[in-house]
Structure formats: structure tokens, C-alpha cells
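Q: What would this chain look like folded?
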Amino acid sequence: MTNKTTGIHHVTAFVRNPQVTADFYAGVLGLRLIKKTINFDAPEVYHLYFGNEAGSPGTIITFFPWENSRKGKVGAGQVGYTTYVVPNDAFDFWKERFTKLNVAFAQTSRFGEQYLQLEDPDGLKLEIVARESGAPSKWTFGGVPAEKAIKGFGGAILYSAAPAATAETLVNVMGLERIGEEGGYARFQSSGDLGNVIDVNVESMELGHGGAGTVHHIAWRAKDDTEHALWRSQVEGSGFLPTPIVDRQYFNAIYFRETGGILFEIATDPPGFARDEDVEHLGEKLMLPEWYEGRRKDIEQLLTPFDIRVLEEDK
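A: My prediction, written as C-alpha cells:
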């Protein structure tokens, strides 16, 4: 094995309404909209990216808002929970914030850590854990000060249709280390300080199906294009069928479906989201790849306008 990923690069999910999504991820969770673009394969649909102040790898959650999409079902073959990490002293802040904003949550524990588990308005399953690791956020929005803000991903819970095979892929292909098993989950860890803790169900579970409120894929980090090419060879040599390298403007990507049914992507850290916007103005206008610029007016008419706005409760 040549490469070992340092952790999650991004997570991409299906939702329905861009304004509802913006109000939750920016308004409630305090994340920054770092890129407003389109689904390159379906330009009538937004592709929205939320993360820390710069959209650093390990902080980015992305969405395809399909207004009329069916409701998905979270289950095997998907990311079950996307885990966010906050500073050690911020756990009570988030309990109080969710209570104030009438966001239902449950407190639970796993591997000796406390988690707040909740759902976004479409039913996407999220959780918050407090840890020391990970650079603090520099972004402040609404009622979320930088010192309490989400730092990025803590990791994820993967729901596998073939847990032993998924575990083998995480260790022998992606380079994570298996560090424990408890309460029906096996835990794996990478070397990074964000997006580095992955839990996988041990027993079989019911299959999910895609739609609003489900994760489309989880992306793992490659440090550059040279390593990315080696990743493709490594995945192919492990018996999977990776796609050709795809230019996603802000990173290059390959995709493959692991044996447990979860769609994996491997994405490069560079070039990042400042390639076509100043860092100070990320996410402020619709950015299109050059091959769509000639259709900008038509595309903008197909997209539902939305705003990044502070919630009334935070004013």
C-alpha cells in the first residue's frame, strides 16, 4: 500500500430546498457558504459547499438541492451520520443553542465520547462531538462565535451492507487503523486531525436508498495530483473499478463503490476554492465552469434564489 489518506475531504448529500438548507447550515450551525455553483452533470441544480472560513479539506459538506426529489432512506450502503467536531469547551454551548432554536437532539455516548445527534430539515443525520484536535475555526456568523464554532468533521459513521469488507477496505486500501470495537461499531482512525475517526456497523443492517436527507458519497483526501494518480492505481490494484480522474474545478476526483455499497471518492486538496474567488468573497455569487459561462443567463433563471441570513433568534 503506497498511500494512506489523512481523513475525509468532503461529504456530499441530497436535500430539497436551498433556502432551508442555507438557514440550517449557515444560520443554525454557523458554517460559511464557500462556493455557490452547479451540478456539472445537471446544471439546473445548485451545488452548494459549506465549510470553515476557507473551505479547508476536512470541513466541507456539499449539497445538491433537488426541489422535487423523493425522500431518501438512511441505511446500509451510505454514510449514516456525518460527525462534526467542536472545541472541548463548546459542547454545552451547542446543547443550549439547539434548545434555543428548537432543534431536536439526543445525547448519546460511543467509545467514551459524548455526542449530540440531530437531523437537518431533510432528515440528514448529523452529530457533534467535542475534541481537542483540529485547528479552530476563524468564522463567526449569527449566534455562533468563532471560539465555539464547528472546526470541521470529526469523522462519520458508515452504514455498510458488508461490514467486514468495508473494514478491510478502510484498512488495506485507505490506510486507516482499526483501533477498537464497542456497542455494535468498529472504530478506525487516520493520521489527520480532522475527519479522522470512522465508525462502521459490525452487524448487517437494512439497505437504504438515495433521496433527500441522504449522503451521496464520502470523499477522502489526496495531498496532490501526483498522489492522486497513485491512488487510482492503488484502488484499481485492490480489485475495484475507479472512474477516470474527473476535474471538479476545486479538486480532482476519482470514484469507486466499495463492497459494502458506499460510494467513495478520493479528492485532491488543491487547488481549493480561492481559485476563482477572493477568500474574502467566497460564496457570494454563482460560479460557473468556463464551459457553462455562455449559458449563464439561462442557468440563473432555472435556479431558485436564496440568501445567507442570520436567524431571527440570533438578531
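The chain has one domain: 8-314.
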